[in-house]
Amino acid sequence: EVQLLESGGGLVQPGGSLRLSCVASGFTFSSYGMSWVRQAPGKGLEWVSDIRGSGIVTYYADSVKGRFTISRDNSKNTLYLQMSSLRAEDTAEYYCANYYDRGGYYGKFDYWGQGTLVTVSS
Amino acid sequence: DIQMTQSPSTLSASVGDRVTITCRASQSISNWLAWYQQKPGKAPKLLIYKASSLESGVPSRFSGSESGTEFTLTISSLQPDDFATYYCQQYNSYPWTFGQGTKVEIK
């Protein structure tokens, strides 16, 4: 059974930093790309960042480029999102999701974690 | 960026109704279109991929179709478990983008 378990969310002041983690199980982690997708309270879904299975290729939404860094440790089956210079508009539930790391499957989110809430407020 | 425009934003329907949700892409995305279902407090769940392919385990009352840059999710006979919010998503090119969502409510 595929499981994705996020952690690391919480309350942080504007300008602060936070690191999210997503521990994966039930599939061959290195064969899957991973994404972070967020959802502000009462709003829709917004893709944040992607990392391919190798961990070498990454992508970011313009709204977080230069402030967030995605990474992964395939030996630990874990995905990370380092967030810095946080703003009020980064307040959201952050989900990790996986996709098969092969052409034609990039961005097709097969499984999602349950999310971790990040609140940016003074 | 590719904009995904979903309609309607809210839909009121009864059990047994046929329901149709539309998503329009601002440019060609071929058939790289997915549909997700999200219930309150839960993560999204993949229903349809490649515009019309049913994800394993998803009931056959869900179907997807495409016509150019317009995509449709149809629920043939709405069931109590189907009251939720539905999102389309293009995965033709980065940044991946979602429609704004359609909430299916009980009439």
Describe this structure in words.
The complex is a heterodimer of chains A (122) and B (107). Chain A is mostly beta strands and 122 residues long. Helix content of chain A is 0%, strand content 51%. Chain A has no helices and 11 strands. In chain A, the strands form 2 sheets. In chain A, strands 2, 4, 5, 6, 9, 10 and 11 form a 7-stranded mixed sheet that branches. A 4-stranded antiparallel sheet of chain A has the order 1-3-8-7, with no helix packed on it. Chain A starts with a strand and ends with a strand. In chain B, 0% of the residues lie in helices and 50% in strands. In chain B, strands 2, 4, 5, 6, 9, 10 and 11 form a 7-stranded mixed sheet that branches. A 4-stranded antiparallel sheet of chain B has the order 1-3-8-7, with no helix packed on it. Chain B is globular. In chain B, 36% of the residues are buried. The mean pLDDT of chain B is 97. At the A-B interface, strand 5 and strand 10 of A face strand 4, strand 5 and strand 10 of B.
Number of strands of chain B: 11
Count of DSSP-assigned helices of chain A: 0
Order of helices and strands of chain A: EEEEEEEEEEE
In whole angstroms, the N-to-C terminal distance of chain A is 40 Å
Q: What would the average pLDDT of chain B be, to the nearest integer?
A: 97
Task: Specify the number of helices of chain B.
Answer: 0
Low-confidence stretches of chain B: none
Given the helix and strand composition of chain A, which structural class is it?
mainly beta
Strand content of chain A: over 45%
Largest protein interface, residues of each chain? A-B, 20 and 23 residues
Which key features would you list for this structure?
heterodimer; A: 122 residues; mainly beta; seven-stranded mixed β-sheet; four-stranded antiparallel β-sheet; globular; B: 107 residues; 11 strands
